[in-house]
Amino acid sequence: MTKSVHVIRKAHTVVGFDAGRKSHVYFQDADVAYDDTGFIHVGGHYDGAFASETSGADRMVMPGFVNVHCHSGEEPISKGIFEDAGTSALWGNALYEYSNLLEIDDGAIEASLTVMLGDLMRSGVTTLLDIAGPHESWLPTLAQSGARAYVAPGFREAQWHVEDSHRLDFIWDKARGREAFARALDVVDAAASHPSGRLGGVVAPSQIETCSAELLQDAAAEARKRGMPITIHSAQTMAEHEELLRRTGLTAVQYLESLGILGDNLILGHCIFVDSHSWTRQRTDIDLGLLAARRTTVGHCPVTFSRSGMALESVGRYRRAGVNVALGTDSYPFNMLEEMRQAMICARLSGKSVFDVSTADILETATLAGARALGRDDIGRVAVGAKADFLVVDLKHHAMQPIYDPLRNLLHCAAERAIEEVYVDGQCVVRHGRPTMIDYDGAVALLQEAQDYACRKAPENDPKKRPMRDLAPLSLPIGR
Ligand SMILES: [Zn+2]
């Protein structure tokens, strides 16, 4: 294979990786050389052979983001419907009563995935972990997008049922759960051996409380056997926390420890309601120490939860306890820079201090911590030998002006508006906000129909058969 080296000359700022410090550092007036195998040079003048070069004047080159938790499937069509909804008897959470109401028809599932990919990539995501139901277009669409992607086909033995808007019940069908588990293993194996070389698999029991202990343990064993990560929604709501206490007397973290599942390949989706959270009834502080000791990752997704009035307490506290906190977007708006800003704000609110987390801390959660969660030291950083997954930020964009510290401008002010280009494996996947490898506009055009279909079907999926106007009243009345 002929290597085609490209050089970005004298970039104003490069967020490079310092192996000695094990952290990102600023390089100024630096050259970056890369090809499709990875970065060849990061730093001073590059005087090796090259095929093409561009000027880095007024540009910042920085690592692409690693999103360890998102959902395609129904999430992209759920936008604008249940943001004001919740079940008051279940701590105000909308998850159990409302999330199962919307369903996507098979024809729209590829469009839904395409929209999520486009939104994520233009907000700087170069690696993502998609937890969804498997479908035929999943791997081909991910590969086509140019992103680096991990598929996490969810499986569970119990379905949620909310009786009369107040009691969460579980309807168990273990045989069905086992079938879905077997299918999921086929999908993760197919991803791991995908010819693109950019796909991977993650074993994903959907939720800690919808799987039996045996299934969780078998899933962990299969993940270990394959050298794959495993991810489980755990400690994500108070209803789940109380259900686990009722069943086992343990918090989610302690329960997973008792099953021998906590480990460095485990990513816990959300992990908000640990024993030391102010909403829980425990008066202990055990869970964070366990997570740190087992080097387990927390997949933190502040936007969806803070929208419902819930917050992890706090990113800074978890990090100071030694927990690897990585970042995900969960659902729409599928905007990683917005997620990073919200992570910072939520941490400072719940930590009651501007010192809870710094801008650099949040950049680390969105890059190096995500790479660590996936067991990789070749992504989430701009460094020789790492994959050429990076962003080019326009420092002359009005939202980036005036400039003193470019990362602060990007995270606190400009967000994705200043991202000019996004690269994965040295290939441009987003240019001026437009995904280059997928038909994003075509996919968006299909979503309205899919959302209309889901809204028509929703009352059928509601135990109380309520019409949509009762399930999700418009935010304003219709005027006459
Ligand atoms: Zn999730």
UniProtKB/TrEMBL annotation:
Stretch forming the signal peptide: none
Gene Ontology MF terms: hydrolase activity, acting on carbon-nitrogen (but not peptide) bonds
Keyword field: Hydrolase
InterPro entries recorded: Amidohydro-rel, Metal-dep_hydrolase_composite, Metal_Hydrolase, MTA/SAH_deaminase
Domain Amidohydrolase-related: 60-428
Annotated Basic and acidic residues bias: 458-469
Cross-referenced Pfam families: Amidohydro_1
Region (Disordered): 458-480
PANTHER family according to UniProt: AMIDOHYDROLASE-RELATED DOMAIN-CONTAINING PROTEIN, AMINOHYDROLASE SSNA-RELATED
Family from the record: Belongs to the metallo-dependent hydrolases superfamily. ATZ/TRZ family.
Protein name: Amidohydrolase family protein
Lineage per the UniProt record: Bacteria, Pseudomonadati, Pseudomonadota, Alphaproteobacteria, Hyphomicrobiales
